[in-house]
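pasting for the record
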Amino acid sequence: MLIDYRHASVPDDFDAHLCIVGAGPAGIAIARHFLGSALRVCLLEGGGLNGDVANQSLYAGDSIGVPELDPGASRLRAFGGSTNVWGGGCIPLGRLDLAPRDWVPYSGWPISYAELEPYYARARDLFAIDGHEFEAGGFLTSPARRPPEFDQRHLVNRNFVLSPVFFGAAYRAELERAPNIQVVLHANVLELMTDTEGGHVREARIGTLQGRRGRVCAHRYVLACGGIENARLLLLSNSSAPQGLGNRRDLVGRYFMDHPRGRLGTLRARAVTPITRPYDRSGGKGNAPAFPELCLSEDAMRRHRMLSGRVRPVAVEGAVPRGIHAARRLRSALRRPRPDEGRSLEGQMSQALSFNAPVRQDAPPRENLARLALALAPGVGDLARGVINKLADRPLVRPDHVDVIGYFEQAPNPDSRVRLGEELDSLGQRRVRLDWRLTSLDWHTYRTSAQLFGDELSRVCGGSFQAEPWLRDGTTPQLQGTAHHMGTTRMADDPGEGVVDRDLRVHGMDNLHVAGSSVFPTGGWAFPTFTLVALSLRLAEHLRDCLFLL
């Protein structure tokens, strides 16, 4: 059942066995687990079916760390969450990612890869990649193009699978039809109200931007709002516990992590296509193709005592032939603009999250189409050569050089954190203040791995690598986030080391759980969505066992 909480015909209050806060991939995965059961599920979503500016503004906040990270531009408040704009990459974490590493402070998960593996297997169905076999650290499916071989003491290729699934679009209909599941849109959770001791949630207070207020009463509650908002909501729930729920040890919001990314350097060689084409995510067959990622080997991480990371060697075009340029302008002019505000917002976010994304150019006026078509004539030879290149699986335009873009695991750091600021949002709630900080281990990883990647890529293509100045002389870091927010409600058996236990239950509370990448103690370099859904399925199984005992 799909409900718009803004409508007057909808009741103010709801009762359920299970209340899930957030209808992103974690929340949807958990809700689906109860399809057809006798248990009533209330799935709350603060946004609507599509993104809009008013709802999105509730995610705005301050960034006071270095590097900066805009909390309002790196997540989407809508049904389906940020999977409305995600890239689709799925890959499991490796065993080393979950293990304690003596050179990485605060590393180690309380569960092993073996405990997570069966839920990875189940998660494939939700992503429509169930035909792909996997192992720790990657998929076994052959990639679209075979990548070059590297010295495996330093670098290895790991395959990921590109899922075609956007959770909101894929699972809306079945949730809408389910008689035991209420999906309540535009229902923002304002606070979790507890008993006087702060150990049991009694209700979730909800409200709309239009001023409506109500509550949800349930036996169990799950926060599935994302790596920033999970921590924010715990901190905002301070009526019974002034420091916030689950925060007796001052751990909520700490250990904030992302996957820092940035240009490591420039590679020049006569022939760069063999080292760029396999990694450009083109040429895939079927709905869920596999592609390689070029990664640091576990041996290199141990030997150099550094974090994990990967690079994308991105071919940068040289001079664009006149005919190709004219064809591109014409194609751009023929594309129809999307007037829908929600889709426009999602498009802007998608571009903001894409490294090296081209700046959007307005299409030429319609009256210039004839002139643009005429401009193709002098470049017919260029177009013919472009067709030949495409048939030969070569880029249309000869590359000038290669930008080596790095994506890295971040070291867990208690000083990197989500706090509450003093400014209030439209609901009267304190906005988030994000203090993103890196450590000396992060910098050691960037400098050491840049040299390893540069040397190996140069060796394979017979070229030369020039590292970026910020890596050589310690100038301002040219880094940004990847919108993979993790760690702020980290998982640990010891309440002194984490916010939730191995069953994702908040320490010191009997009916509150947290789902999503905020529970990751470490993040590896892997795209987090596949893992957070696997963890959500594990949690859903645990919740079902608990609720059926009622």
